[in-house]
Amino acid sequence: MQRPGGSGEEWERLLRQGKDRFSNWSSHVGNALKGTLLFGGILILLLLWLATGLYTVDPDEQALVRRFGEVTDVAGPGLHWHPPAPIAKHDIVKVTQVQRMEVGFRGQPSGVVSTNPVEALMITGDENIVDVEMVVLYRISSIRDFVLNVYDPGELDRGIGDRPDGRTLKDVAEVSLRAVIGGRIIDDVLTSERGIIEQEVKDGMVELLSLYEAGILVEQVQLQTVRAPNQVQAAFDDVVSAKEDKERLDNEAQAYAADIVPRAEGNAERVLNEAYAFKAQRVNEAQGRAAEFLAILEEYAKAPDVTRERLYLEAMERTLPDVRKFIIDGESGNSPLQFLPLAGFQGEGSGQ
Amino acid sequence: MKFLIVGAIGLVIALVVISQSIFVVDSTEVAVVTRLGQFKASHTDPGLKFKTPFVESIRKFDNRLQRFDIPPANFITLDKKNLVIDAYARYKITDPLLFLQNLFDLNAAGPKVGDIVNSELKKEIARDFQSDIISETRQEVMARVLSASRLIADTSGEGGTSLGIEIIDVRIKRADFPLSIAESVFARMNAERSRVANQERAEGERTKLRVESDADRRVTEILSEANRESLEIRGLAEGRAIEIFAAALERDPEFFRFLRSLEAYQVFLDSGDTLVLDANAPLFQFLASSTATAPAAGQ
């Protein structure tokens, strides 16, 4: 064994051999591993791709599923799967919830309401300007129509899925409201015809939305503020207060009448009662005195002369005591001169 | 190794070819297929479609109802008044090929529809009075503009064909007074309101005067009626009293005169009076002598 030299060669050979073997083995193993990894990777990508077809629909929603552009399904609430893009796709829309659109104003979450004059001011049939604000309550009645028929069906600012936000509903509301208000005089708009206006606006909206096949159902139209514009508000308020004044004057007059007429009726009753009282008194007195006279007469007739004399004397007895009396001799003459001295007595008498 | 590379290249080519030869037409779309610029086919129904790869290309258009807002503008009415009108049109593609030929795409189609509707609207507004447009004839104006615009859209394509769209609806959204006259409108409204207010108040005064004077009249009527009745009753009472008296006194008028005179003497002679009596009067016949003969009583 030539250890130093030979061993070196030997080692070298052994080493080379080992290297070759290893690289042989490793390329073998490596090829197998590479294939597995590639396959596994593709499988995972495939699974991930398939998983993108999973979607959930909330209880208040529906999903419209299209495969290669054709509608295949309207899915209700729950977990669903459809073949992933680009084969199929879905749109989820809230359908059961009644939604609210404000026309003429914008309510903030803080409760502050700001008027939107461009929307709110409109002309009435008698060419006055009126400020009308309303709320439209609506919901999606057909997800198919809503998604497929109109480019921009819903309310602006609403953010419906990945679709462009719509103006159609607002346009329809404005057209209907303005047409209805334009057909009425301002007094009717402000006071008596609110209910009719709400109904007509709703009918108009329903008609237009069905013409457009927008898939939106208007549940209710509620007029909110309906008033004269700020520039003329004071004058309109004055009319209201004038109406109040009219009412007040009317009430005052009624109160006056209600006060004096019953009193007058009472007075009339009193006057009549007094008259009846007088009548009773007068008649009774007359009857009494007649009866008295007749009674006296009856007795008098029994002994006229004596009674007459007695009555006369009794009367004189009652009459004469208080009277100043002069008794003169009738036969000495009737000349008034005889009475001259009486003046003095008379003066004394009246002086008493 | 070679196999893998070849496989990958083959797959890419296959994918490119497939993507070039199949396409999807959505429910919201229509598509036109052209071969080297020449019309080949149009698809208005949704689904998976095929074409020859590379030499054929497709154009898709949104098939849903489209909106075009006609910007608010001054219109002159028949009575030479201004009206600011804000309208919109709704249209949709009916024939994708004609649409492609005449309008090319939706960006161009909107303004074209706007032009058609705008000019028809101008014509119609100029035929009506301002007040009518505001209230009564708005619907009719819209209907006439719609049918005229439709006719134009149906015939103004190349060679008198349709533009490939149908105008579904034209609506006047707003018909307002121009801002410049808004102030005078408000002034008129104020004047009109103060007229109403004055009238209300005057009517109130009228009612008050009428009701109050009516009440006064009724008071006078009631009281005078009562007085009349009272006088009648009193008169009748007097009459009745006289009748009763008379019936009794008829029995002996002379005795009544005698009795009544005695009563009267007692009433009208009082302590202040002075009475001159004749000593020869029958009253005193016993004053001088108790044997005098009695005179006739009361004479």
Physical arrangement of strands within the biggest beta sheet of chain B? 3-2-5
* Annotation, overall tally of beta strands of chain A: 12
Q: What is the 3D form of chain B?
A: rod-shaped
CATH superfamily of the largest domain in chain A: Band 7 domain
Written description of the protein model:
The complex is a heterodimer of chains A (352) and B (299). With 352 residues, chain A is α+β, with helices and mostly antiparallel strands. Chain A folds into five domains: 23-52; 54-92, no CATH class; 98-228, Tetrahydropterin Synthase, Chain A, CATH 3.30.479.30; 231-302; 311-351, no CATH class. Chain A contains nine helices and twelve strands. Mean pLDDT of chain A is 83; it is low at 1-5, 156-162 and 340-352. Chain B is an alpha+beta fold. Chain B is built from eight helices and nine strands. In chain B, the strands form three sheets. Chain B has a three-stranded antiparallel sheet with strand order 3-2-5, covered by helices on one side. A three-stranded antiparallel sheet of chain B has the order 6-7-8. The radius of gyration of chain B is 59 Å and the shape is rod-shaped. The N and C termini of chain B lie far apart (184 Å). Mean pLDDT of chain B is 87; it is low at 294-299. Classes of the chains: A alpha+beta (352), B alpha+beta (299). At the A-B interface, strand 9, helix 4, helix 6, helix 7 and helix 8 of A face strand 8, helix 6, helix 7 and strand 9 of B.
Quick structural overview:
The complex is a heterodimer of chains A (352) and B (299). In chain A, 57% of the residues lie in helices and 20% in strands.
Keywords for this structure?
heterodimer; A: 352 residues; alpha+beta; Tetrahydropterin Synthase, Chain A; disordered N terminus; B: 299 residues; three-stranded antiparallel β-sheet; 9 strands; 54% helix; disordered C terminus
